């Protein structure tokens, strides 16, 4: 889930939002990413909150991912994504080469998307800004906040956050309340992606955020309620030499449990051994999952009319030890973001059984590497 934007960051000259709605996505360049001078995720660490919700400039790349499924009282369903990426252009001990107030070593990128299920409409926008002059940034104390111009998430109290974001076509004004606290993914928060030392990230989640507020889709405003998910990762790493992308699942089930699993794919499309995840119980207990614990079968594919990429579009997921069997389907098939790199990220619904009892849920799925390898992208 860590995506680089070094080429665009180096060329940024202002703070205007960029919207990519054209049918032809920009090329996904393979760029060298120097990592000397940055820390790497090597071993488990002790986390301190809210400090560790904020930025970690000693690491090269960081992101905050917010996704969720929302409904109106009449049953009109929406999915949303708001993502902030931070990229260090120079190691922490380095200073900008010029004294201008606009100079900075940190650049932020944001992705905002809204899925309107009733209208079968998917809208998205990308924007960039430098950290200088308060145009973008993040903080951990005294309360967490991350922002990119008028897109922001700010902590209101120990468990509540306000999410604000808008474009000319969509808008979010939401209150998120954390129900389970911080979930440390992987080995006490160290999520390994490959065999090389540092081929890992520090990975924190809030897997059950109850949501209420207002959204805007086109000219229409709606009152909504729902459930959301937050992922925060920071790292100085890269995909393994044979890895080209990943499939990431974040599912919230109506029995109160949450499931996260990511498949790291090699250049033949096969899962690599470091694919992993977790099952989070209703009371917040984390049960780590490896490839031997999860069986995933692709049931359907969708071909993008925009990029030509072929994505998996429906899945059958089984956790035999949990007597859990789930069918995961997108609310609409076209939830492809054609931004600086092309990927699919969208709202999904879940139906299945647990120990022969029906179970339902919602969630989000992210698919990368289908419109071009992610090698060199982070």
TrEMBL record:
InterPro entries: AttH-like_dom_sf, AttH_dom
Highest taxon of the lineage: Bacteria
Domain AttH, chain residue ranges per copy: 61-236
Annotated protein name in UniProt: AttH domain-containing protein
């Amino acid at each position: 889930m860590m995506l680089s934007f070094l080429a665009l960051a180096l060329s940024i000259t202002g703070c205007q939002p960029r919207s990519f709605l054209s049918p032809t996505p920009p090329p996904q360049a393979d760029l060298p990413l120097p990592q000397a001078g940055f820390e790497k995720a090597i071993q488990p660490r002790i986390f301190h909150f809210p400090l560790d919700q904020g930025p970690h400039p000693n690491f090269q790349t960081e992101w905050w991912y917010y996704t969720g499924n929302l409904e109106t009282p009449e049953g009109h369903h929406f999915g949303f994504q708001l993502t902030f990426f931070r990229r260090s252009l120079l190691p922490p001990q380095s200073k900008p080469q010029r004294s201008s107030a606009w100079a900075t070593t940190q650049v932020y990128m944001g992705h905002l998307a809204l899925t309107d299920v009733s209208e079968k409409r998917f809208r998205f926008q990308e924007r960039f800004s430098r950290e200088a002059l308060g145009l973008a940034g993040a903080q951990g104390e005294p309360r967490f906040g991350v922002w990119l111009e008028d897109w922001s998430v700010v902590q209101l109290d120990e468990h509540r956050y306000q999410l604000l974001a808008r474009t000319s076509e969509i808008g979010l004004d939401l209150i998120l309340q954390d129900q389970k606290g911080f979930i440390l993914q992987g080995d006490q928060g160290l999520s390994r992606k490959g065999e090389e030392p540092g081929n890992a990230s520090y990975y924190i989640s809030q897997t059950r955020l109850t949501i209420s507020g207002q959204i805007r889709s086109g000219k229409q405003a709606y009152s909504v309620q729902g459930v959301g998910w937050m992922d925060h990762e920071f790292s100085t790493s890269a995909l393994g030499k044979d890895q080209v992308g990943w499939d990431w699942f974040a599912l919230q089930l109506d029995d109160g449990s949450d499931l996260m699993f990511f498949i790291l794919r090699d250049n033949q499309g096969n899962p690599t051994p470091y694919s992993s995840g977790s099952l989070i119980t209703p009371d917040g207990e984390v049960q780590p999952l490896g490839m031997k614990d999860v069986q995933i079968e692709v049931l359907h594919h969708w071909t993008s009319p925009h990029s030509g990429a072929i994505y998996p579009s429906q899945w059958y997921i089984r956790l035999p030890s949990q007597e859990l069997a789930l069918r995961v389907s997108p609310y609409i098939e076209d939830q492809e973001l054609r931004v600086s790199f092309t990927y699919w990220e969208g709202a999904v619904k879940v139906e299945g059984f647990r120990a022969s009892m029906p179970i339902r849920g919602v969630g989000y799925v992210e698919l990368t590497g289908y419109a071009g390898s992610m090698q060199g992208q982070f």
